[in-house]
Amino acid sequence: MTHRWLTRALVAVAVPALVAPTVASTATAVPKPPAVPTLAAVAKIYPHLEGGSIDVSRVSKIRMPEKSCKRGSVIKGATGQEAMYAPDIESMEDVKEFEVTGQEPMVSVTTQVFRSARVASQYLRATLTEGQDCEELVGDEGQMKKIRFKLGSERWGFQVRTAIKKDPLIGNVLFFRTGAKIVGVMSMSMTGKTAPSIPKTIAVARLALKTVG
Questions:
Q1: Would you call 135 helix, strand, or coil by DSSP?
Q2: How far apart are CA 190 and CA 141, in angstroms?
Q3: What are the phi and psi torsion angles at 118 (to 5°)?
Q4: What is the pLDDT of residues 129-140, one digit of tens each?
Q5: pLDDT at 164
Q6: Whole-model pTM?
Q7: Which of 7, 14, 122, 168 could share a disulfide with 192, CB 3.0–4.6 Å?
Q8: In the chain, beta strands by DSSP E
Q9: What angle do CA 213, 173, 37 make, to 5 degrees?
Q10: Minimal CA–CA distance to 111: which of 57, 156, 71, 157?
Q11: Given strand 154-161, what is the order of strands in its sheet?
């Protein structure tokens, strides 16, 4: 298992919209993707999100992860969407003092559906080895430890700390498969001091499982 895919995913969460490394959004009409949890539902787990915002992006092209530096092929019939949950920053008395901490992390949920459970399983397993044979990505990209949880038919989870020296990102990353659907959940701290709660991240994943059906 390489750190690269997880590290890039965490860095992507740090920008206003989540951009996963194996997908590309387009305006082309696509099948309806699995639902994502509502802001109100997620705020019951993370109260700091109450009254905040949810930014949902449709994903119409999902590519199979590759071990090499090459872009994977588009998976026919696959679609998804990504949701970013953020607090109401504008209402804060001092916006400059706002920090994304382990106690009040940034949260995102990704839901995807494939044409069969077999293809979904192939995709989930491929994410664990993406880029491992790519010489351009070789290097120390932080530390990680496994997160154990029981959701779906297949799953993997890690808590990742990036190798950024100043205020490293610390995030929990969970992915699991239920039938032909895959759900991904990330919670991230940007201060490098405290890690997001693993039980709360799992609680969001459990909520997402109920949401996708």
A1: helix
A2: 16
A3: -65, -45
A4: 776 666 554 444
A5: 64
A6: 0.82
A7: 168
A8: 23-24, 53-59, 61-62, 79-86, 106-113, 143-146, 154-161, 170-178, 181-189
A9: 30
A10: 57
A11: 53-59, 79-86, 106-113, 181-189, 170-178, 154-161, 143-146
| Six-digit token string for 178 | 């239920």
205's tokens: 């994943």
pLDDT in tens, 36-65: 999 999 999 999 999 999 999 998 889 888
* 172 vs 6: CA distance, rounded Å: 10
Residue with tokens 């120390």: 140
The enclosing H or E element of 122 equals: helix 117-127
C-alpha closest to that of 106 among 38, 22, 18, 41: 18
Three-state SS at 12: helix
Please choose, from the candidates 139, 157, 155, the residue with its C-alpha nearest in 3D space to the C-alpha of residue 147: 157
